[in-house]
Amino acid sequence: MQDPTMPGTPAVVAPDRTLGVGGMSREGLVPAVLAVAGLCGGMALMLVFFRHYLDPSWSQKVALVSGHVGLVLAIWMTVRLARRGDYPWLMVVVAVALPLFEPQHKPDTLPWRMFGAAYGLVLVAVAVFAFVRMVARTDELERRVNQEALAVAFASSLVLAIAYSLFRELLPELQGVWVAAGMIATWLVGWNRAWRRYR
Amino acid sequence: MRNRLRVLRAERDWSQAELAARLSVSRQTVNAIENSRYDPSLPLAFAIARVFSLTIEDVFTPDGK
User: Quick one: which of A195, A194, A141 has its CA closest to A5?
Assistant: First the structure.
């Protein structure tokens, strides 16, 4: 089957999801909430273990296992969102996940540094994958929505960056992961705003 | 731009989802076009006209006319 709007390219039928507010699917809400809960809970429990990883108590070992369960749940739900093509929800998960780990606030040990590097790389890879797949699978209206969302994200990030540079002395030091999360968050605001217009 | 998409669809007893599948777009896109919230690109307008075996002018009308 050929795409009637682009001769010579295969047809891309956008999934007919039940859209809630702002073009986010209702079906994706539960997996996204579970993924975020699994990530936050899993990370918190892993922190409990890693603070005393050289001499862990019984409860800290339980925290380690529970933390893994939380992270596995988060990965499972994230993969589910990706397979369903719920890319805006996937971006929400990444936006929440990015600031969860700030390497400079953690103990300066090799396992943490390796974990932090792998964690950041995986999240960035998921964000890039989600964005590329989303753009590739969208039809022309969704592409328009995405374009407007990118415009909002770009303008908001620019304003926030300039505002931060003006008030740097008064504000706490800004971490790189917060900038990335902020960009994704402003993109989501733009996506929501554009969907409302075309709904 | 106004259009007769809803009427033409009703004449053929097609749902929005069915028309969307024929055009390889999402149902939300068909809905937005029907409600004149979104003007389709020229290739999609041609595709819509072709699906109904009509010309573009038979489906879409500029607002002033």
Answer: A141
